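Run log // design_07
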């Protein structure tokens, strides 16, 4: 980075020239592993070279300007003016004040590694007409991975750590999950229903257990159409809402079940004044 900055304007001019000539070819990302919080597993991380980061940042701004108009209100991950705290605040209000009695906690298995690149490019083509932009995004997806000095082609997924990867992940789940929930699943529910998503981490809230059970089944089928699987051991339906504590006591349990979302464990209990 320091060497690039020594002749910054000349280097940027040369980069822009290669981009215009369609002569820019992304390099493989270097894969390293970092500790995964809350477990003894490691999370793969892709480290792009400097120029790839610059180009991806430019592409991200273009795509963000297009898709911010399209993304649903309850998508919070890696979007301007939104944070995980906004998602947590909306989740709390939904459970406390909008009739939620059941929560579906879901986890997509190795999401970033299993994105179907052809499906992703088809989604992009819905809104992006510039063939050059589409070609560069495909080049980044196909750039491959270098791990311990060995090159490996990438036929699936988006590299975690890439500047553009969070936006592509949002786009993929916008079409595969968000729109499906709002336009097809939610209208068939017998009570209030809401899906709150932060990147590939999401929970769904329901008033009726039957809706929650149907969502659990249909969600798995829907994701399967696009090459994604849920992790069965991390996906469950639990009673969670104003009645959960009472139901737990009736079943001989001292407390209602808890669930984790965005680094916080959620408990069912009343506030100090007993109103919420």
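design_07 sequence
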């Amino acid at each position: 980075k320091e060497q690039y900055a020594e002749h910054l304007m000349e280097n940027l001019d040369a980069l822009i020239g290669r981009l215009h000539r369609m002569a820019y070819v992304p390099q493989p990302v270097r894969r390293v592993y970092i500790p995964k919080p809350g477990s003894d597993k490691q999370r793969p991380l892709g480290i792009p070279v400097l120029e790839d980061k610059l180009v991806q940042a430019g592409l991200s701004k273009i795509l963000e300007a297009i898709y911010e108009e399209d993304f649903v209100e309850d998508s919070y991950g890696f979007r301007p003016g939104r944070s995980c705290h906004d998602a947590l605040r909306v989740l709390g209000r939904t459970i406390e004040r909008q009739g939620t009695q059941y929560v579906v906690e879901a986890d997509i298995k190795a999401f970033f590694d299993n994105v179907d690149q052809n499906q992703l490019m088809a989604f992009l083509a819905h809104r992006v007409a510039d063939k050059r932009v589409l070609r560069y995004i495909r080049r980044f997806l196909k750039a491959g991975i270098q791990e311990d000095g060995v090159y490996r082609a990438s036929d699936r997924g988006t590299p975690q750590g890439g500047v553009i990867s969070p936006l592509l992940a949002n786009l993929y789940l916008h079409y595969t999950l968000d729109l499906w929930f709002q336009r097809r699943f939610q209208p068939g529910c017998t009570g209030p229903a809401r899906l709150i998503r932060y990147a590939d981490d999401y929970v769904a809230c329901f008033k009726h257990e039957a809706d929650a059970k149907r969502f659990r089944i249909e969600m798995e089928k829907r994701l399967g159409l696009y090459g994604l699987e849920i992790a069965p051991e991390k996906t469950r339906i639990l009673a969670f809402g104003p009645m959960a504590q009472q139901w737990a006591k009736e079943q001989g349990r001292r407390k209602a079940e808890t669930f984790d979302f965005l680094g916080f464990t959620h408990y069912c209990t009343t506030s100090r004044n007993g109103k919420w």
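The radius of gyration is 22 Å.
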